[in-house]
């Protein structure tokens, strides 16, 4: 029996509806998806552990012979359990099987087996629950370990993949042109596919992995290049030079050199024939908002409308408050559009957009909704761009005709990554903070010092200053997680340690109107101490707030902690960041200590990337790109560069991938770009 690559996995033996659902959770619907579900690691069966030295709580393969099988044990709910003792020269291992009478019966005495699973227990009694069993002298030198989901075992998945490889009709299309494969010494697809799933040696496995990593990076590079090229062929609306001095004079401060440079770059882009497409990257507090406002003012002088989209309502309203005062001075009309406004308010805002009364509209995702139409939208700005996917950015662009685009991000991205992720954007970097900013002092403490920290906060509140305390949870659930939750925390401390002070609570589960009231009261100084979750992370700007204390600091990524810390240190008073953790894990403590050593977002991001990997640092939602299955943009730096180079070579000769030999590649790229909401041409 053969199956087609694009058939549903349900055509394979052993895949019923239930299992197909589990596969769906892993992103596998077709046989092709299944073949592209690469192992995340391999277990070398040629080097099993001895029982006595099998590491506790770790997954490993142990070699042993069966010396005893127990009677069937009936558990509650009708489940059956079997205990089997296996031994080698060094000790005895208890194996527990559930509901698998057949497997247990089939075990011979005195024949060596490999048992693969997690070892638990103590020195006296080692146990392995539901192990996978392999003959010790089998011809399979490695077990491929696949990414799994609950309810699907590695053995089952691995058998189904083996079956698919044997039965598949034809082969996966070769995406890499022969020349590229020869140049970079990459193995051909069908060979590589066999070797990645069932390698015979480590060398073969490495070769196969390298090929697939290269393929993945190559496709990404081709896709991003096409996006960029598409943008360059668009007809934009070149704007005219304008006298900007009124803007600079209306500001209460002088712009930093880096801000001015970014403004010059974006204004010069906006005067070109192709639409501007620029990323402004700058550490928290570097003053990106004014760069955006300068661009919006420039558009206004050119008779065009602008839209500024922020990821949260708090942030949108704050931008609105800050920018509308400045806009008033300049004769420019601003408006707000966010989800929590009443239907009547929204209707009014939409009318003003359509008839061109509003020059700059500030809002959230609400700007993307149907029925929001502009008279003449020519500049689209996205704040905290890493919070949006490419698709959302595109949706906002589509509200205009090829508008100029400016995106702003505080998540610093190392250069190699930026090229891949933002390859279609030009980049301005604001690498300078406004003058008179004192670096925030950062400390790590344990909960034994919490009371002292509260005293320290009180001293500052007494001076008319303000503070934040951030907790990882909104409220305590049923399970004891050992984590602080903002709701209970607020009740505790406002009566015990901060009676006589005004304490506010802010979290994501509150209604938008309530959140906004609390944030407004904090901005105006009515609330002195704000207990919050990470909703304050993004962009909130209250210069009078000088202390940021974070509970369970170990629970946050460094870039996130850096964002949180960026909420203070915005005025001219010395600010402090107190990171509280009771973690004993040396790696965790070292990570948190990195915060005490550095105030530089780029440095911190590099470190975060090195220690946690990009999976955590840049989730799919962080950059809007499709998830990489096998390659790693940060560790495979040479491969990234090679793939980029190869993509350039291919596109130089065949810019639209229209040659028949590139058909499969073209189709794959279109699929890839559809996933991020963009199409080439
Ligand atoms: P971010 O880059 O994090 O978005 P903001 O644009 O919110 O930073 O700016 C942070 C604070 O710095 C704001 O209060 C803003 O008014 C102020 N600011 C911006 N530029 C300057 C400057 N050149 N000199 C002094 N203060 C500035
Ligand atoms: Mg900002």
From TrEMBL:
Domain Helicase C-terminal as annotated: residue spans: 449-610
Alphabetic keyword roster: ATP-binding, DNA damage, DNA recombination, DNA repair, DNA-binding, Helicase, Hydrolase, Isomerase, Nucleotide-binding
Pfam (any one): DEAD
Catalytic activity: ATP + H2O = ADP + phosphate + H(+); Couples ATP hydrolysis with the unwinding of duplex DNA by translocating in the 3'-5' direction
Enzyme class per UniProt: isomerase
SMART domains recorded: DEXDc, HELICc
GO MF term (any one): hydrolase activity
Primary role: Plays a critical role in recombination and DNA repair. Helps process Holliday junction intermediates to mature products by catalyzing branch migration. Has replication fork regression activity, unwinds stalled or blocked replication forks to make a HJ that can be resolved. Has a DNA unwinding activity characteristic of a DNA helicase with 3'-5' polarity.
GO biological process, one term: DNA repair
Catalytic activity, EC: 5.6.2.4
Sequence ranges assigned to domain Helicase ATP-binding in this UniProt record: 269-430
InterPro entries: ATP-dep_DNA_helicase_RecG (IPR004609), DEAD/DEAH_box_helicase_dom (IPR011545), Helicase_ATP-bd (IPR014001), Helicase_C-like (IPR001650), NA-bd_OB-fold (IPR012340), P-loop_NTPase (IPR027417), RecG/Mfd (IPR047112), RecG_dom3_C (IPR045562)
Protein family (similarity comment): Belongs to the helicase family. RecG subfamily.
The name this protein goes by in its record: ATP-dependent DNA helicase RecG
């Amino acid at each position: 029996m053969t199956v087609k690559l694009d058939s549903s996995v349900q055509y394979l033996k052993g895949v019923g509806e239930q299992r197909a659902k589990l596969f769906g959770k892993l992103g596998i619907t077709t046989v092709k998806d299944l073949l592209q579900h690469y192992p995340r690691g391999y277990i070398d069966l040629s080097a099993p552990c001895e029982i006595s030295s099998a590491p506790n709580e770790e997954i490993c393969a142990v070699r042993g012979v069966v010396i005893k099988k127990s009677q069937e044990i009936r558990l509650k709910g009708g489940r059956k359990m079997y205990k089997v003792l296996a031994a080698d020269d060094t000790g005895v291992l208890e194996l527990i099987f559930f509901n698998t009478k057949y497997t247990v019966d089939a075990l011979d005495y005195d024949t060596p087996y490999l048992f693969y699973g997690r070892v638990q227990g103590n020195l006296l009694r080692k146990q392995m629950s539901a192990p996978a069993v392999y003959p010790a002298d089998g011809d399979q030198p490695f077990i491929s370990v696949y990414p799994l989901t609950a309810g699907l075992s590695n053995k089952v998945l691995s058998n189904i993949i083996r079956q698919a490889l044997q039965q598949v009709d034809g082969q996966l299309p070769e995406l890499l042109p022969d020349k590229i494969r020869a140049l970079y010494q990459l193995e051909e697809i069908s060979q590589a596919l066999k070797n990645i799933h069932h390698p015979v040696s480590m060398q073969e496995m490495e070769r196969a992995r390298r090929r697939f990593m290269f393929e993945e990076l190559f496709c990404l590079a081709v896709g991003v290049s096409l996006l960029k090229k598409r943008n360059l062929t668009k007809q934009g609306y070149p704007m005219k030079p304008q006298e900007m001095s009124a803007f600079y004079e209306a500001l209460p401060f002088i712009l930093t050199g880096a801000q001015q440079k970014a403004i010059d770059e974006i204004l010069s882009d906006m005067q070109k024939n192709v639409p501007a497409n620029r990323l402004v990257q700058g550490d928290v507090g570097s003053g990106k908002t004014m760069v955006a406002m300068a661009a919006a003012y420039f558009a206004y002088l050119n008779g065009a409308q602008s839209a500024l989209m922020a990821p949260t309502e708090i942030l949108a309203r704050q931008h609105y408050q800050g920018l509308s005062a400045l806009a008033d001075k300049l004769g420019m009309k601003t408006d707000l559009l966010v989800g929590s406004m009443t239907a009547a308010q929204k209707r009014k805002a939409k009318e003003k957009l359509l008839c061109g009364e509003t020059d700059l509209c500030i809002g959230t995702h609400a700007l993307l909704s149907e029925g929001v139409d502009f008279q003449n939208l020519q500049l689209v700005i996205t704040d905290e761009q890493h919070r949006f996917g490419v698709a959302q950015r595109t949706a906002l662009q589509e509200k205009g005709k090829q508008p100029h685009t400016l995106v702003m991000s505080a998540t610093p991205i190392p250069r190699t990554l930026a090229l891949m992720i933002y390859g279609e954007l030009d980049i301005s970097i604001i690498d300078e903070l406004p003058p008179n900013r004192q670096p925030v002092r950062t400390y790590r403490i344990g909960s034994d010092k919490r009371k002292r920290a509260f005293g320290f906060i009180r001293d500052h509140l007494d001076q008319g200053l303000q503070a934040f305390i951030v907790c990882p949870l909104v409220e305590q659930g049923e399970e004891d997680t050992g984590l602080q939750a903002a709701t209970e925390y607020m009740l505790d401390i406002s009566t015990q340690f901060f009676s006589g002070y005004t304490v506010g609570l802010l979290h994501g589960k509150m209604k938008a109107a309530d959140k906004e009231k609390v944030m407004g009261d904090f901005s105006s100084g009515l609330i002195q101490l704000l207990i919050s979750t990470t909703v304050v992370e993004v962009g909130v700007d209250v210069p009078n707030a000088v202390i940021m204390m974070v509970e369970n600091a170990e629970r946050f990524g460094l870039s996130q902690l850096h964002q949180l810390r960026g909420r203070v240190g915005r005025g001219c008073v010395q600010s402090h960041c107190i990171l509280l953790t009771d973690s004993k894990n040396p790696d965790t403590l070292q990570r948190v200590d990195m915060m005490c050593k550095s105030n530089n977002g780029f440095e911190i991001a590099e470190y975060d990337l090195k220690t946690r990997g990009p999976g955590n640092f840049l989730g799919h939602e962080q950059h809007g790109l499709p998830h990489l299955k096998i390659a790693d943009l940060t560790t495979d730096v040479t491969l990234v560069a090679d793939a980029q180079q190869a993509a350039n070579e291919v596109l130089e000769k065949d810019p639209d991938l229209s040659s028949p030999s590139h058909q499969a590649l073209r189709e794959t790229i279109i699929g890839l770009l559809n996933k991020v909401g963009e199409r080439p041409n």
